[in-house]
């Protein structure tokens, strides 16, 4: 398994949690990756925390002159990435050390272009998705987003073919991407083992629930 991974992470005002996210990537058992970190014009000490890792040869640090939001920031990182696969990481979450190793094994050895995993909710230590993880995704997707965005691993050429993330979607950009993947009749392989700690406290999904729901419905009805 020699294919290079490009890990992309956009950060905005997350000075207290971003270090743990970065350390979880640097501690991966699979080591052939580049780590692209973009500070989306934070107003706290996020940039200072990120810059502490500037001497690590695997890390490339970028900054936005103005806040662009997650969608445009991720597309910016995708466009300058060099890896065969794009792996996501959110700045307030933590990846298990075997995550990359297990996901790239799936991508390299099964006939799939997209792979996600389940996660453990940091707030209550429960595995998510729960029982719905075993339901047909085309049913689940009518009611909620069934995948953990931070665990996304996807073939870059395929992602480019989809047009990357749709910049019409300031929120729920991941759900729109999953809908685009299904429209191409591609499977999303979900590793049932949790390989990610997901923060559900004071994050985008909780702080902007109404906006997320608006864009979720937009993607659902536009692609349904």
Provide the succession of SSEs.
EHEHEHEEHEEHEHHEHH
Sheet with most strands:
9 strands, mixed
Whole-number radius of gyration? 16 Å
Low-confidence stretches: none
Give the tally of structural domains. 1
Report what the structure shows:
This protein has 224 residues and is of the alpha/beta class. It has one domain (5-223): Spore Coat Polysaccharide Biosynthesis Protein SpsA, Chain A (Alpha-Beta Complex). It contains nine helices and nine strands. It has helices at 18-26, 46-51, 70-80, 99-109, 137-140, 156-161, 173-183, 204-207, 209-223; strands spanning 5-11, 33-39, 59-63, 85-88, 94-95, 114-121, 127-128, 153-155, 188-198. Strands 1, 2, 3, 4, 5, 6, 7, 8 and 9 form a nine-stranded mixed sheet that branches. Helix 7 packs parallel to helix 9 (209-223). The radius of gyration is 16 Å and the shape is globular.
What are the SSEs and their pairings?
Blueprint: E1 5-11, H1 18-26, E2 33-39, H2 46-51, E3 59-63, H3 70-80, E4 85-88, E5 94-95, H4 99-109, E6 114-121, E7 127-128, H5 137-140, E8 153-155, H6 156-161, H7 173-183, E9 188-198, H8 204-207, H9 209-223
Parallel strand pairs: 1-2, 1-4, 2-3, 6-9
Antiparallel strand pairs: 4-8, 5-9, 6-7, 6-8
Helix pairs in contact: 7-9
């Amino acid at each position: 398994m020699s294919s290079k991974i490009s890990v992309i992470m956009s950060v905005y005002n997350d000075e207290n949690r971003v270090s743990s996210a970065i350390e979880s990537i640097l501690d991966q058992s699979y080591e052939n990756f580049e780590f692209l970190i973009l500070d989306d014009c934070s107003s706290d000490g996020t940039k200072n925390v990120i810059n502490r890792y500037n001497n690590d040869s695997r890390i490339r640090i970028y900054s936005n002159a103005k806040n662009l939001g997650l969608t445009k920031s991720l597309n910016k990182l995708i466009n300058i990435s060099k890896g065969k696969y794009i792996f996501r990481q959110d700045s307030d979450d933590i990846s298990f050390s075997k995550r990359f190793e297990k996901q790239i094994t799936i991508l390299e050895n099964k006939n799939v272009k997209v792979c996600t995993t389940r996660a453990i909710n940091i707030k209550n230590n429960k595995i998510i998705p729960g029982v719905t993880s075993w339901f047909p995704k085309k049913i689940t997707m009518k009611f909620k987003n069934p995948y953990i965005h931070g665990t996304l691993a996807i073939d870059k050429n395929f992602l480019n073919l989809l047009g990357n993330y749709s910049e019409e979607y300031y929120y729920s950009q991941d759900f729109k991407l999953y809908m685009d993947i299904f429209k191409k009749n591609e499977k999303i392989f979900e590793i049932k083992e949790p390989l990610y700690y997901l923060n559900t406290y004071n994050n985008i999904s909780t702080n902007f629930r109404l906006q997320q729901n608006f864009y979720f419905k937009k993607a659902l009805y536009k692609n349904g």
